[in-house]
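Section 5: illustrative case.
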């Protein structure tokens, strides 16, 4: 009898293997989850930083824009930000004004849950190595608009050597969350340019031809002054044609003579050329409360640098006035005129003082040599020139650099 023999094979135990696999899977899943969490956190951080950067930049930009607007306000406005002659440290390197989100016109951070702030400081731009504006030496002087730019001496015409209104440096800082952005801008305020280099400037040499009499010219004369003669409004003392608006357009009075008899259509100056009875308001000479712009167009080809005068304009009465007198052709002044302001002649100017004397306080620019005879006094006065310029224009704010 054959007895079957059964061999019992051991049953394999897979519990350890399954445990290892399970642990590996758990580690992998944890790593994947952790990586996803890290990526999500990184993306959140990047997104938050990007948002903070944008908002901080916008706050700094908003501060600049508000500063521009506040500089442009009339000085009596409570939000006016630029200089006042009564300010402490006026026209010194220590002068500055500032505002922040709490004192701005509108608090842009109001209601913000994040750390939000912006602040703006306005100072005079100074000659120093940081900003790079200087006349020749870094002596920390205030940079004036139209001056201290170190133009090359070979320029024609020669660059300006004087300026009358300061350049401002505006620093605006915006903060949002953990991000801070700072923006710096340079701006200048400029009114209608009526400044001359001296009592009498001429594009010719000599500037003066004194033919007799008792004349007194105070403040110097400039020959070959190099002015670009035209009827455009300038924004600095270097180029009188940087703005496209014509002086004719903003003048209080405009009078015309387009040929030798002043008889063409639209001419209102008589054939004699006299404007004594044509001009109705010469400005307030005595009180200095206002000034006027008088535009006399007696050039018949509108090319003021090669003026061809239709009929010389003439002033012969004992008139008084204050303002800006512009003549596109020739002008002859006789009698006892008393005038405070800016006389701008794009042709030939002849001055013959009468027995009572003829006085101009301010400055004169003419294309050709100025002829003087008789009792004539011309006194260079920058405050008068600046006064009639600002009275007859709104101050413009000019931005030309930002970093």
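Designed sequence:
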């Amino acid at each position: 009898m054959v007895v079957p023999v059964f061999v019992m094979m051991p049953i394999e135990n897979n519990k350890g293997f399954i445990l290892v696999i399970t642990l590996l899977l758990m580690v992998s899943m944890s790593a994947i989850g952790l990586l996803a969490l890290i990526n999500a956190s990184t993306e959140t951080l990047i997104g938050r930083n990007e948002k903070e950067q944008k908002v901080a930049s916008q706050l700094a930009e908003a501060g600049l824009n508000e500063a521009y607007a506040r500089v442009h306000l009339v000085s009596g406005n409570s939000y006016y930000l630029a200089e006042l002659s009564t300010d402490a440290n006026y026209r010194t390197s220590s002068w500055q004004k500032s505002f922040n989100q709490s004192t701005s016109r509108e608090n842009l951070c109001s209601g913000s849950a994040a750390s939000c702030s912006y602040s703006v400081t306005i100072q005079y731009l100074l000659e120093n190595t940081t900003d790079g504006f200087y006349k020749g030496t870094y002596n920390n002087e205030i940079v004036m608009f139209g001056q201290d730019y170190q133009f090359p001496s070979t320029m024609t015409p020669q660059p300006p050597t004087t300026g009358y209104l300061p350049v401002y440096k505006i620093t605006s800082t915006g903060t949002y969350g953990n991000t801070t952005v700072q923006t710096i801008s340079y701006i200048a305020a400029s009114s209608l340019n009526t400044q001359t280099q001296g009592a009498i400037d001429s594009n010719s040499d000599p500037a003066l031809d004194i033919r007799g009499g008792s004349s007194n010219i105070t403040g110097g004369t400039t020959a070959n002054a190099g002015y670009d003669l035209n009827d455009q409004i300038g924004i600095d003392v270097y180029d009188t044609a940087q703005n496209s608006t014509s002086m004719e357009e903003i003048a209080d009075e405009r009078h015309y003579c387009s040929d030798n008899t002043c008889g063409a259509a639209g001419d209102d100056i008589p054939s004699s050329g006299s404007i004594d009875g044509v001009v109705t308001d010469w400005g307030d000479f005595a009180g200095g409360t206002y000034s006027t712009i008088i535009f006399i167009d007696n050039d018949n080809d509108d090319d003021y640098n090669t003026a061809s005068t239709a009929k010389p304009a003439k002033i012969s009465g004992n008139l008084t006035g204050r303002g800006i007198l512009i003549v596109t052709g020739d002008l002859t002044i006789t009698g006892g005129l008393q005038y405070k302001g800016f006389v701008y002649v794009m042709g030939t100017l002849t001055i013959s003082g009468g027995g009572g004397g003829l006085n101009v306080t301010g400055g004169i620019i003419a294309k050709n040599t100025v002829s003087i005879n008789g009792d004539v006094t011309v006194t260079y006065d920058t405050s008068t020139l600046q006064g009639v310029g600002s009275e007859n224009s709104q101050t413009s704010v000019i931005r030309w650099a930002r970093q």
